[in-house]
Design brief:
This protein has a single domain (about 25-190), classed as Peptide Deformylase (Alpha-Beta Complex). Helix content is about 35%, strand content about 25%. The chain has four helices and seven strands. Its EC number is 3.5.1.88.
Amino acid sequence: METSVAATRRLRCTQLALRPSIMAKLDILTYPDPRLHIVAKPVAVVDDRIRQLVKDMAETMYEAPGIGLAATQVDVHEQVIVIDLSETRDALQVFINPEIVWASDNRKVWEEGCLSVPEVYDRVERPDRVRVRALNEKGETFELDADELLAVCIQHEMDHLKGKVFVEYLSPLKLNRIKSKLQKRGRARM
Ligand SMILES: [Zn+2]
């Protein structure tokens, strides 16, 4: 299984080398980078620049690998989210200028992780169902009712656009431990 994934990635890299403008893997900011706290602006026009950003974000998410990525995490402060919860990694969902138009009173706890907070997983309580309104890559408005993991993922990624990282729901004690762990890691790598 590992081998076949690696082989697919190599293949993708070869294609990238042949057509370098098609997609690019972007760098993911790591907590507590202050740029993760910048509030993203709405996208004014869904044009080719935004569609290229979506492609680059999708490529970055698949390579990581992760199930969701917000533009904030790649240091682009515009309201764009990509999500793919499929096992086969071929069901990309794109949310531009997303808004929660309804959330259930019922709340549920899930264990969350984040590409910007490597190796940290913790429990966060959120509404268990949400209705989201957003634009797709063509600039068309759509609404979607989400539950289970998709509801969690949409809310997690929308928090990034507001400059909030999931660990900020945890206790100050836990948050400080996570910060110092990640800062040490960052120093060790330099
Ligand atoms: Zn995240």
